[in-house]
Structure formats: structure tokens, C-alpha cells
Amino acid sequence: MSKDSFCRFPEGFLWGSCISDYQAFGGARCDLPLRWTAKHAEHYREDFQLLLKMNHNAWRTSIEWARIEPEEGKISRDAIKFYHNYFSELRKTGLKTWVTLHHFTNPLWVHNYQGWLSKKVVKKFVEYVELVIKEFGEYIDYAVVIMSPKCMLF
């Protein structure tokens, strides 16, 4: 095997990195404790340029259900606007998008129904997914509906 053939990736190979809203955007409103983050929500334009400098062609990010629907039945127009701006800027880079719709966190109100054991929560999640696809579907190349679903079982 030659040195060149060892280092080649197939045509169309997606090379990128990832982030999640809770872990890096800042200002989480979910059911996990607030923590220090990289404040990607404030610096995403610069971050996208860094991805291009690293020759990435893909980016996995997430949409936070708790940011979209912080109170049951109340959709945050500010969150919708933020994500439209975010994904619009991301689309300009030409990076392929992988968007996670549920990355381990829930809106606080989900626990009023005993979490995912409730059929009502499942129904509300489906409504959230439908809203996300309606609002942001044009920006999503690949969707990860639930990140690591086996972890949710534990």
C-alpha cells in the first residue's frame, strides 16, 4: 500500500466536528444544571470560519427543545429567530449539516408528566420535531432525531 492511498478518503467523505446546544451554546434552559460553556451562540460566525480553515465540509449541531418550547405549549419566537439566523449563516459556509433534534436534554416541564414514560411527552416531542422540520428543514442535510437513544434507556 502506498503512502498516498493510505491517507485518501473516498470521494464525498464528510470530514467535520460537532457540538450540542446544551454543551456549548450557553444559556441553557433545560432539565440539566446550567454550566459553563464556550458560548458558541455568541461566536458561531467565527466558529464557522474556523471550521472552513480546518478544511471541514460537515458540521453536526443541535436544536434545543427547551430553548424552542421553554414552557409547555409556548414556542419562543426569539429561539426560532436565533436558529434561523444561525442556520442561515451556516448554510452560507457550504458545510453539510447534521442536526440533532434531541441531545439528552428536555424542557423542565417534561418532568410534570414523568418524562419519556408519558405518551403525552412523546406526542409533544413529535409536535416539536414537526415544528423543527417546518421551520428549519431547508437547512438540514441530515437529521439525528435522538442522539444515542440507548443512553436514554439507562
Q: What summary fits the major beta sheet? A: 4 strands, parallel
| CATH homologous superfamily classification | Glycosidases
Beta-strand segment tally: 4
Count of distinct structural domains:
1
Mean pLDDT over the full residue set: 90
Structural class: alpha/beta
Strand content: 5-15%
Low-confidence stretches: none
Order of helices and strands: HEHHEHHEHEH
Blueprint (SSEs and pairs):
Blueprint: H1 3-6, E1 16-18, H2 21-25, H3 40-53, E2 58-62, H4 65-68, H5 77-93, E3 96-100, H6 119-136, E4 142-144, H7 149-153
Parallel strand pairs: 1-2, 2-3, 3-4
Helix pairs in contact: 3-5
Describe what this molecule looks like in 3D.
It contains seven helices and four strands; from the N terminus they run αβααβααβαβα. By secondary structure, the protein is an alpha/beta fold. It has a four-stranded parallel β-sheet, with no helix packed on it. Helix 3 packs parallel to helix 5. The longest helix has 18 residues. It is globular and about 55 Å long. It starts with a helix and ends with a helix. The mean pLDDT is 90.
How would you sum up this structure in a few lines?
With 154 residues, the chain is of the alpha/beta class.
Key words describing this protein structure:
TIM Barrel; 154 residues; single chain; 4 strands; alpha/beta; 4-stranded parallel sheet; 44% helix; 7 helices
